[in-house]
Design brief:
Length: 253
């Protein structure tokens, strides 16, 4: 793909986005880390009391859950405007449009890198070790990002045509947050409810293949199979969908 050959441009644009967002700020993107730390601490203390769960177990769970959810939700929400915010570049320069999708993915990976430093600090604070099983989070992250890429590509095309879609997607993301075990643990739901909230929830599987290894547990076979199937069939459909409408995107912007 032509966009893959422009990886240097993708990296440069992603860095520029981060620098522009925190221009003239003393701490720069580390404001993200500070605000995320405060939010995790507050939510962890409150919900560990509400759910009567020891803070030593609950704080790492909710910390990595919120960090990963922020990455997933930001990619999807920003992806809705992936082509819209780049309309001037698309209309004036012969750059592959998929570069703009990779650009926002890379930008959010950089932001995730700033936030993820919170997690090992929390593990040290609560006295929990991180074993070799945590390395499974690397293929989990890659697989989840592949899924986010095809979802973002489809949404960017649809939202370029229908400008009300970003608001609809943002609302659906907010609902999904409460339906996915981010601030509540999967084992707290009944087997019947788990079919709908866990087994049939693709976001849960994507989060779990990244989160479970970092918490010292291997993801289930179902987590891997669902995530892999989504990556394969979703990517194929996204390529077909994008190829079919690619020439119309510039006229929609």
């Amino acid at each position: 793909m032509a966009a893959a050959k422009r990886h240097a441009l993708v990296g440069l644009l992603g860095w520029m986005d981060i620098r522009q967002r925190y221009r003239r700020s003393a701490l720069g993107p580390f404001w993200l880390t500070i605000s995320m730390s405060v939010m995790i601490g507050a939510i962890g203390l409150v919900f560990s009391t509400v759910f009567h769960t020891p803070i030593r177990d609950f704080l790492p769970f909710i910390a990595i859950g919120i960090i990963l959810w922020t990455y997933v939700s930001n990619v999807i929400i920003e992806g809705c405007n992936g082509f819209i915010t780049a309309d001037n570049i698309i209309k004036q320069l012969p750059i592959p449009m998929f570069v703009h999708i990779l650009r926002l993915i890379w930008r959010n990976i950089l932001m995730l890198g700033h936030n993820i430093v919170i997690f090992p600090i929390i593990l040290i604070a609560v006295g929990k070790p991180m074993g070799l099983i945590s390395l499974l989070s690397i293929p989990g992250f890659i697989l989840a990002t592949i899924n986010l890429t095809w979802v973002t590509l489809i949404l960017a095309v649809i939202c370029a045509r229908f400008r009300d879609m970003p608001q609809i997607v943002a609302s659906l993301i907010q609902v999904t947050f409460y339906l996915t075990p981010i601030i509540w643990k999967p084992e707290t739901v009944s087997a019947h409810a788990g079919i709908y909230l866990l087994d049939l929830n693709p976001v849960y599987h994507l989060i779990e293949i990244m989160r479970a290894p970092l918490l010292g547990q291997p993801p289930t076979l179902m987590n891997w199979l669902v995530s892999a199937a989504l990556a394969i069939f979703g990517s194929l459909f996204a390529l077909y969908f994008y190829g079919h409408y690619r020439r119309r995107i510039a006229y929609w912007l």
